[in-house]
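Quick start: what a row looks like.
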Amino acid sequence: MYLPERRLFSRPTLVICLVFFSLLSVSTFLHLQKNNYYPWWRISIKNTSTLPDHEHLDRGMWTVNSIGRLGNQMGEYATLYALAKVSGHQAYILPAMHQYLATIFKISLPVIPSRLVDQIPWKIYQLHNWMSEEYRHIQGKYVWLTGYPYSYTFYHHIHQEILQEFTFHDYVKEDTNQYLLQLRGQRKEVTYIGVHVRRGDYVYLMPYFLKGVVADKGYLEKAMNYFREKYHDAIFVVVSNGMDWCKQNIDASRGDVYFAGDGRESSPGRDFALIAHCNHTIMTIGSYGMWASYLAGGETIYLANYTLPGSFHLKVFKPSAVFLPEWIGIPADLSPLLPKS
C-alpha cells in the first residue's frame, strides 16, 4: 500500500506562517472593533454577570425588555429602576442592555446571566409610555416589563438617582470635554447649545404613517435665534443622523455652528455625549434627544404639536408625559400635511 511521504517544513517557513496568521488575527480583531467610537483598550467595565444567590431569587427578580436604540434602552433601564424600587424587588438587566449601556455609563444594576434568563418563570407585564397608578401595584416575584417606556413620569421623582445611573465613564467625559474645548477656541466664555436633529427613518414614517412632520429649517432657525438673543456667546453643536440635510439647511455663516456629529447610528454614544455635555439643548423628536436634554439640564426647546390631531402616534405618545413642563415648545409647521388648495 502506498503511503504519501510526510512533508516537513523548515523552521523559517514555520516562523513566517505563525507571524502571518498572528497579524491576520490582530487585523481581523481591529476591524471588528472599528464600529466602536471609544477605543477598546480604554474600556474597563466591571463584569456584573454573576449568578444571583438563592436569597435574591427567593425575594424575586424584575427585568425589562432590551429593545430599540440608545434612547429606548435608557428609558427602559430608568423605568425598570424606578418601578422595581416602588415594588421593593431587585431589578436586573438583560445582557443585551448591559452591553448597550455599560460602555457609555456607570450603570449599577446587576445583569442576569444568559443561561438563567430562560429558566425563570417570568410574568410578562406590558407598559405604555406614561406612569399609571396600576404600575404601583404590579404583583409578581419574577416580572418582565415590556414596551418602549421612557416618560419622565416613571422616574422623575428620583431624578438625582437616574442622573447618577447615567453618569458617563471618565474616558467619555475626557474625550467629550476635549472636543468641546477645541470648539471654544480663543473665546473667553462660551455657552454650548446641543442641537439634535432626528431624521433617518422618521423622514418617511412621520408623513406617511403617523401623520406628522420632522423638524424643518424654520423650526431650527427659531430655536437657535432664541438662544442667540439670550446668550451672546452661544455656539451650537449639531449632531444628527441626517448631517447632509443639516449642512444644507442650517445657516452656519455666523461662525457659531459646528456640525460635530458623525451620524453613526451603530455607535451613537459619541454624539449623545457631546450634546449631553452642553449647557442647553435644542431637540426635535425622539427619545434620544429627550434623554440628552434630561441629562444636560439647562433650557430645552422641543418641536411641539408635530402630528395632526387624528394621528395614531397620539394613542401611544402623550406630549405632557415626555416633555417636562419647564421645557419650551415651538409648534411645528403642519402645512405640508394639509390638502393642497
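That is the whole record. Strands lie at 61-64, 123-126, 142-146, 191-197, 234-240, 257-259, 280-282, 300-304, 328-331. The first strand starts at residue 61 and ends at 64.
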